[in-house]
Specification:
Blueprint lengths: L5 E12 L2 E11 L4 E12 L1 H17 L5 E6 L2 H7 L11 H13 L3 E5 L6 H16 L10
Parallel strand pairs: 1-4, 4-5
Antiparallel strand pairs: 1-2, 2-3
Helix pairs in contact: 1-3
Amino acid sequence: MTHSGALIVETDGASRGNPGLAGAGVIIRDGRGRQLTHIAEFLGSMTNNQAEYRALIIGLEAAARYRPERVTVRMDSELAVKQMNGQYKVRHPEILPLYLKASELAQSLPNVTFVHVPREKNPGADRVANLAIDGRMTRGRGAGPDPE
């Protein structure tokens, strides 16, 4: 699958509880903003920051299949963006391997930039991440005990 030019990768990780049931949402757009694909993946139980990084990894892996000339990653996780841009160090031992994997994937792609966007400017990826969790819960695999 080839797509010359720019790609926009919108990612979001969601966790219901911290840790809790988590999902990754990814939307890939061409340089004009047209959606090429979306990915919703149930992640099991993890923290929100872990889910954010897992969504980033899934998004970068998917972007690589298009062989783009440049990639702009848009995320509402300020922490992950600042870590990926080298502004913050990664100190948490459960985040470090995810950060290293995301960094490796980013380095394998040409001209990757990471941009923080407010949550309200990232509604598509957020919706897809929550759909991944909802889909798992409605099938009964992941829904906890009934609250009473």
